């Protein structure tokens, strides 16, 4: 079992013919992802060879969905074209759009997120500026390395790409149901709360790791949600415990206002609702390991 991305998922890649898109399409195919085609209006009707797999290129997301039954798109287009690509995916009503692109203007993200809401939120957006989503042993949509962990019963949601990878590796022997990198921009599609709700509802996820970072109040809001809605054990980590006060660091979303948004404040909010919080990624993995050994 997995959330949002399964072995049956049919994936297309917007920007498949570009350098990043083609590189990661090859990696996704190697991981066993069912990639069924790509989108590039200028190259519609052609095919691209990926080590023997001939993938068709379509003029639009709607065309790709009609011809292949695709239900997931991974977006690898430059920042200036990302808004248009996401709007196209929303108009096609594809269930899941994974926006990998970094450097998307915040007003563009706000615009396509508002547009999605106006259309009934039929498309789940993950990102932008994220590593994607991986259900180990089933499917991999994005840039998460496919060989660093195994299949298991831990769910992972993380703002940070590199910390996603580290946590997956630290707990590789226990394994994960799904790992979701939600991105660290000020405005993102899928939130910690969305992932927590999905993992809570997934019968094959037994425990959850939540990785946040300094800035904003997403983790505090997640703590409130956990208290009211999550029965499964949650272990947390907040990146930025050693960040110097007053210094802007990391993602665009990592902006601290006074005492709000600090790692310590987030840690206190999470611990107040029963979440065990590690001071380092390794300590966090140890807490999860201890938790799982008792189940």
UniProtKB/TrEMBL annotation:
The record places the active site at 251 (tele-phosphohistidine intermediate)
> Per its UniProt entry, which superkingdom is the organism in?
Bacteria
Q: Which residues bind CoA?
A: 17-20, 43, 100-102
The catalytic activity, as recorded, is: GTP + succinate + CoA = succinyl-CoA + GDP + phosphate; succinate + ATP + CoA = succinyl-CoA + ADP + phosphate
Q: Where is the CoA-binding domain?
A: 4-104
Under which pathway is this protein filed?
Carbohydrate metabolism; tricarboxylic acid cycle; succinate from succinyl-CoA (ligase route): step 1/1
Its keywords, alphabetically, are: Ligase, Nucleotide-binding, Tricarboxylic acid cycle
GO terms for MF? nucleotide binding; succinate-CoA ligase (ADP-forming) activity; succinate-CoA ligase (GDP-forming) activity
Question: Matching InterPro entries, A to Z?
Answer: Cit_synth/succinyl-CoA_lig_AS (IPR017440), Citrt_syn/SCS-alpha_CS (IPR033847), CoA-bd (IPR003781), CoA_lig_alpha (IPR005810), NAD(P)-bd_dom_sf (IPR036291), SUCC_ACL_C (IPR005811), Succinyl-CoA_synth-like (IPR016102)
Q: Which GO terms describe its biological process?
A: tricarboxylic acid cycle
At which positions is substrate bound?
165
Any single Gene Ontology cellular-component annotation: succinate-CoA ligase complex (ADP-forming)
The residues forming a coiled coil are: none
Give the enzyme's EC designation. Answer: 6.2.1.5
> Assembly state and interactors?
Heterotetramer of two alpha and two beta subunits.
What's this chain's function?
Succinyl-CoA synthetase functions in the citric acid cycle (TCA), coupling the hydrolysis of succinyl-CoA to the synthesis of either ATP or GTP and thus represents the only step of substrate-level phosphorylation in the TCA. The alpha subunit of the enzyme binds the substrates coenzyme A and phosphate, while succinate binding and nucleotide specificity is provided by the beta subunit.
Q: Which family does it belong to?
A: Belongs to the succinate/malate CoA ligase alpha subunit family.
What is the protein named? Succinate--CoA ligase [ADP-forming] subunit alpha
- UniProt source species: Micromonospora halophytica
Gene that this polypeptide is encoded by:
sucD
């Amino acid at each position: 079992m997995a959330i949002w991305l399964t072995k049956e998922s049919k994936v297309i890649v917007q920007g498949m013919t570009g350098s990043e898109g083609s590189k990661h399409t090859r990696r996704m195919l190697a991981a066993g992802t069912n990639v069924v085609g790509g989108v590039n209006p200028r190259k519609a009707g052609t095919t691209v060879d990926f080590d023997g797999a001939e993938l068709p290129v379509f003029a639009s997301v709607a065309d790709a969905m009609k011809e292949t039954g695709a239900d997931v798109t991974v977006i690898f287009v430059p920042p200036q074209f990302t808004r248009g690509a996401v709007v196209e995916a929303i108009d096609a009503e594809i269930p899941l759009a994974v926006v990998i692109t970094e450097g998307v203007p915040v007003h563009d993200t706000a615009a396509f997120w508002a547009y999605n809401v106006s259309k009934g939120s039929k498309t789940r957006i993950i990102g932008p500026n994220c590593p994607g989503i991986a259900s180990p042993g089933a499917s991999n949509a994005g840039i998460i390395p496919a060989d660093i962990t195994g299949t298991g019963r831990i769910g992972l949601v993380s703002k940070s790409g590199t910390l996603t990878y580290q946590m997956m590796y630290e707990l590789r022997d226990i394994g994960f149901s799904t790992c979701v990198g939600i991105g660290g921009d000020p405005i993102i599609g899928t939130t910690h709360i969305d992932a927590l709700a999905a993992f809570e509802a997934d019968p094959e996820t037994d425990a959850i790791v939540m990785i946040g970072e300094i800035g904003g109040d997403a983790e505090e809001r997640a703590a409130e949600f956990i208290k009211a809605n999550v029965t499964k054990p949650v272990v947390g980590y907040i990146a930025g415990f050693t960040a110097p006060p007053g210094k802007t660091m990391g993602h665009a979303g990592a902006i601290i206002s006074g005492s709000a948004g600090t790692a310590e404040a987030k840690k206190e909010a999470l611990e107040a609702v029963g979440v065990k919080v590690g001071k380092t990624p390794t300590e966090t993995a140890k807490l999860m390991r201890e938790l799982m050994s008792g189940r």
